[in-house]
Write a structure and sequence with these properties.
The protein is of the alpha+beta class and about 775 residues long. The protein is built from 22 helices and 35 strands. About 55% of the residues are buried.
Length: about 775
């Protein structure tokens, strides 16, 4: 991880200087919000009402993450081409595309009218909080001089934030999965109508949309049946990027503590510019978020019958509405041009022409998403923050689903829950099959867009969400664990009954080897019937390498009589502890070797068995054995070429660069089944240049003597830039330590308060 630019550091310094002068100069008006920063830059915000509370957090978050917030606002408005040029790249989460592609994607998927309706549908209290939050963002920006604004983030454009920007940031999560397939076709789809017919349009070259890395979040919750003493224990381990630049909108986390006395008292961390803790706790309940995109399918692809400038619905030709979308673009000479694209809209929304791909015939497609036009995730997490039991937590989620995620929760009574936060479409597997287009090889959610019965919409054209009974909610006092996999094996020791295909394919067993490793660890830690806090910590921090535990012995059997480099590698791997600790010798060699095995594709088992504890052999045959052995030798030579000894310790390649020097780190690749995932890019001379995604936040919550205890750590720091707090927390992470976050008023009274600021909310917020 590289030290961030001096321009980015200035963002934090300006906040400190401004806050200090305000603290001395301001008096306390009747309506105020107090912000106290404890060590590592965590703001504890106290106010008398929701609008003031939101104002305080908006101000604090802007001070830490202004660059990220501004970049997200411009991106989801579809304005990146205006400020950065059409051909430059942007990475949103892990989806990489050009600015022009991004602008067209979000302009067609998140138009102003849709976002405005989503805002209007929010609960009054949520609106108050959101209005204050955006006003706080703008208040921070307004406190800067013109010179200070221009110096921020390398001269990034300074927008006036709107409530719609926060709604769009949440709603953009529903766009990412569709973006993989429609992103590369935005230009051709938007140019097809300029000639008046869809069939004669020429395809334009476009930079491919690509995935840079995947998610690897984990969570483990232990209920009253296995915890000795009070309440549940939950270890939340969301993963995110560790670094980002102006053209990378990673999912960096940010910590906060929000309090309205007698009304709400919640702490935790969040990303996506989301203004409430997505991973959090209050005095009674703790929860975490996991990615649901790998299992829950929230939308259908509707294959359209397009005839010239018309589409067919129930046998009737209907005119397509051609909408012009102008995109302003910064040119090389500094001028701004306007490029106009024409997109076709049917009663099912915008349509896109996509080429054939595995499981998808070529043609024109519309998309119906159960979460379309919804920002109810804001309502949901405000209600979640006030839950006093797991049952209340589940009701809050069920009332306002709207974040594409799994949620896990535990409470001080020892109850646990797994519940889907994302809205799924209503429809049985039989109904989906009756609407299905194509044969067995076509993706299950490709349906006939020419039949209204296959629209999955009501008479007003709105997507129809699944009824409550369809969701695979789990309530237990045992153990739940999840590594971004489906509901089916989330309750340890029990296989859930099959639900709609929208929630995951019940006929295809889990293919996530991290979940197999997690099941192995759950069996081990619960063998005596009790799970201790130390055992719960070790599940994540023991850094055991599943691929090595499962298959290295079989691989080493191929070493007899092999060549020098192969024998050298085998000797190192025999002595390896099969962990990815910083000092583990052999982990780096195995990482390079395993990349080669994964690339072979035919060697790994295709799927996990229903029994997650069963051993699955590699496909070692007379045809594959020589290539597997040679992969060891090739990895030895590769390390030498890059300047590493073949037995170099893992932390020599995986490390954090800080002002205090280099810190060797632990954890490793998702594809090796390491629960403490630290997914690096390709190895270079000197080591891995950064961590793409990995353990960024850890939150271990339990109850002792009736009081909540939260041990936390934010490895990339509050600002995502070089800071004393980032260095200190990275050292703690390297030592596998968390720290106790002060939460109660007594704890805060005894805590080291780094800075205090009192603000008078000035709420004037454009939508």
């Amino acid at each position: 991880m590289r030290i961030r630019s001096t321009a980015a550091k200035l963002c934090a310094l300006l906040l400190m200087a401004t806050a200090s002068s305000w603290s001395a100069a301001e008096t306390r008006p009747e309506r105020t919000v107090e912000i106290r920063w404890t060590r590592f830059g965590v703001p504890h915000i106290k106010a008398a009402d929701y609008e003031s509370l939101g104002f305080g957090y908006g101000y604090a978050l802007a001070g830490d993450r202004y660059c990220e917030l501004a970049g997200r606002a411009l991106t989801f408005r579809g304005e990146r081409s205006r400020w950065y040029g059409a051909d430059a790249d942007i990475t949103v989460g892990f989806l990489k595309m050009t600015n022009l592609t991004s602008d067209l994607l979000y302009r067609t998927q998140l138009p102003d009218a849709l976002v405005e309706r989503a805002l209007d549908a929010l609960q009054p209290t949520t609106k108050d909080y959101l209005r204050g939050f955006v006003a706080g963002l703008n208040h921070y920006v307004g406190s800067l001089s013109d010179r200070e604004r221009k110096a921020l983030c390398g001269g990034i454009h300074v927008p006036t934030f709107r409530e719609a920007d926060i709604a769009r940031s949440l709603m953009s999560l529903m766009v990412i999965s569709k973006g993989f397939e429609i992103g590369p076709e935005m230009l051709s789809s938007g140019s097809a109508w300029s000639s008046g017919t869809a069939s004669t349009a020429r395809r334009q070259p476009v930079t491919p949309v690509s995935i840079e890395a995947g998610f690897g979040s984990n969570a483990w919750a232990y209920g009253g049946d296995v915890v000795k003493g009070e309440g549940a224990m939950l270890f939340a381990n969301p993963h995110s990027g560790w670094v980002q630049s102006e053209n990378q909108l990673r999912l960096l986390l940010h910590q906060v503590h929000l309090t309205i006395p007698g009304e709400i008292d919640v702490a935790g961390a969040s990303f996506w510019s989301f203004p409430l803790p997505l991973v959090g706790f209050n005095k009674d309940v703790t929860w975490t978020i996991l990615d649901a995109g790998q299992s829950v399918t929230a939308y259908v692809r509707q294959a359209m019958k397009v005839d010239g400038s018309h589409y067919v619905m129930d046998g009737v030709r209907r005119p397509l509405e051609i909408r012009k979308i102008p995109i302003e673009a910064l040119e090389a000479d500094g001028s701004v041009s306007v490029r106009t694209f024409e997109f076709a809209f049917s009663e099912l929304g915008p349509i896109y022409r996509v080429p054939a791909a595995p499981g998808r015939p070529a043609g024109w497609y519309a998309y119906t998403d159960a979460n379309e036009g919804s920002a109810h995730g804001l309502d949901q997490f405000l209600a979640v923050a006030k839950a006093s039991t797991v049952a209340e937590f589940v009701r809050a989620v069920e009332t306002d689903r709207g974040v594409p995620a799994h949620l896990m929760a535990g409470d001080r009574h020892g109850d646990l829950a797994f519940v889907e936060s994302v809205q799924a479409l209503a429809g049985t597997d039989r109904q989906v099959q009756d609407c299905h287009v194509g044969g067995d090889g076509v993706l299950f959610n490709i349906v006939d867009g020419s039949r209204r019965e296959c629209a999955f919409r009501d008479d007003a054209g709105r997507p129809v969400g699944a009824p409550l009974a369809d969701y695979p909610t789990i309530i237990t006092r045992g153990i739940v664990h999840n590594t971004n996999n489906s509901y089916k094996y989330t309750e340890f020791g029990k296989v859930q009954s099959d639900r709609s295909r929208f929630f995951g394919n019940p006929t295809v067993p889990e293919a996530n080897i991290r979940h197999v490793m997690s099941a192995r660890r759950m069996k081990e830690v619960s063998a005596d019937g009790v799970v201790t806090p130390d055992e719960a910590r070790q599940v994540i921090f023991d850094n055991r390498n599943f691929a090595a535990e499962e298959w290295l012995d079989d691989i080493l059997a191929l070493c007899d009589g092999a060549g020098d480099d192969i024998e050298t590698g085998c000797t190192i791997l025999r002595g390896w502890d099969r962990k990815n600790d910083a000092g583990s010798r052999g982990a780096l060699l195995f990482h390079q070797f395993w990349n080669r095995i994964v690339a072979m594709k035919t060697v790994l088992p295709a799927n996990n068995p229903v029994d997650l504890q069963a051993k699955r052999p590699l496909s070692i045959t007379p045809q594959t054995a020589p290539a597997i052995a040679e992969a060891i030798g090739a990895s030895v030579r590769e390390l030498r070429t890059l300047g590493f000894s073949p037995d170099a310790p893992w932390g020599q390649a995986l490390y954090g660069d800080t002002a205090a020097g280099r810190i060797p780190l632990h954890g490793g690749s998702y594809q090796e089944g390491i629960l403490n995932g630290e997914q690096p890019p390709k190895l270079e001379k000197g080591g891995f240049p950064y961590i793409m995604f990995g353990t960024a936040y850890a939150q271990f919550v339990r109850w002792e003597k009736g009081k909540v205890q939260a041990d936390v750590l934010l490895t990339h720091g509050q600002t995502g830039t070089e800071s004393e707090g980032r260095t200190a927390q990275m050292k703690m992470f390297a030592e596998k330590r968390l720290y106790r976050l002060p939460f109660t008023q007594d704890e805060l009274a005894k805590a080291e308060i780094v800075k205090t600021l009192v603000l008078s909310p000035d709420v004037r917020t454009p939508r």
